[in-house]
Amino acid sequence: MSLSRRQLFGLSGGIVSGVALTACGIAMTSPGGSTGTLLTSSVPLPRPFSTDLPRLTPLRPDRDGRARVTVRRKGVEILPGRTTEIAGYDGLFPGPTIEATKGAPLHLTVANELDVPIVNHLHGGVVPPEHDGYPTDFVQPSASRVYEYPLDQRAATLWYHDHAMDLTGPNVYAGMAGAFVLRDPAEEDLGLPREERELTLVITDRSFGDDAELVYPVTDGVIDSRYHGGLLGDVMLVNGAPWPRTDVDAARYRLRILNACNARRLELALDPGGDLVQVGTDLGLMTRPHRRSTLTLAPAERADVVVDFSEHEVGSQVTLVNRLDDGAMGEVLRFDVARRAKDDSRVPSRLASIERLDPADVVVTRDFKLSLGARGQGHGSHGSSGGSTGSGSSGGGRDGSGGGNLAMWTVNDQPYRPGVDIARPRLGTLERWRFTTDVHHPVHAHLVGFQVEQDGAPVWKDTIDVGPTSRAEVLVPIEGYRGRYVLHCHNLEHEDRMMMADFSVV
Predict the structure, then answer these.
(1) Biggest alpha carbon distance in the chain?
(2) What is the pLDDT of residues 415-450, one digit of tens each?
(3) Quick one: which of 95, 101, 126, 472 could link to 153 by a disulfide (CB 3.0–4.6 Å)?
(4) Total structural domains in the chain?
């Protein structure tokens, strides 16, 4: 039986205490540097590494460059032997991995079979504003629309997800997200691992109720105040499976890793040891590879790494761990080295050419402060013109205990005001953007890329992890299209509670 939007999510389980940060009366635990509060599941959970890693379903455009996905509810098996209803693209959790080619425009039809409006956003895409997924550009129930993606940009591991006003958090949590791999035939000449030795890993965390239902504490579009700082689940999922394992050859593998958590930061490493050879960031290949013992990813960040399993004996086990958490949430994925195999792949010393931007060409420097502001009603349930994919019985009211009168997350001390620009950069210019924050905020801007220095070389990113009391400085070439876009925090509970701002390219 299909659940209503009021039934899909219910508040369940308890709150695990941690190091508390209190701001304007809102308590936020911060395990591992993640801003948010842990929600524990009330259903028995599987042992780590007792399920197999799913291979994500590919979706490739036809010869005319057309593809179609349908957002619908479906019962799927996430916890072994249990059925969980999700709201996802093609009824999958996560959605199908869209595979496209640089320079080949994609005409993506998104159909909505839910009873609430949705918005689709290609995260990292350089697209016209009318196809970007502005928070109020709704696809209504029983309707569809075609998103035009030129894909005239660097090949990269992108992703797509819902971006509905005030409801991105619960909608993505329900399943509305998927990987998007933009390929470039020129990469094939590099010799990096491919085909069966290329794995896309979508990492998320979720909590489950007594009947294995997804638990998200929202009522009528308003999150319970205890999770206002971010929702942290207690089940680590990779490609929709809890703490999975997979057989690998004793050979090199390319891992395309996406942190698709609502609020949890990750610091990934290999146990009992080994290098994560990073070859790519959010927006494509780096100039040269870099060996890392750990790799930190905030929500929405991506990284391409190569792992050489030939360094381990056949029969050994190599675990991808998260060093920002302990216990079960410190475990992510186990690789079982199953067999020797021929390996023709390589990691070249030179990967790509990236022109270093000259700070002397900057025409404008802009400062953006992300912080917790004053209390207010915000948009609440009316922001999405119809509510979320589901809401639970958090028991909150409008007094700040779990309803609309919460402290709002702000950009430059202003809560989000649709249609009001925080900046109006000119097309064809170079700007410097400086970000300061009160707690960890992963900052994402639509349309534009951020050039930052990493390991002594320029790299391209679309999401920057800015820590408390620190400042991040990025160079931003204003390229692409004129029109209105958004800048926001990608802690989705922060975004939904007003930490977003419009900017218009003129």
Answers:
(1) 64
(2) 999 999 999 999 999 999 999 999 999 999 999 999
(3) 126
(4) 2
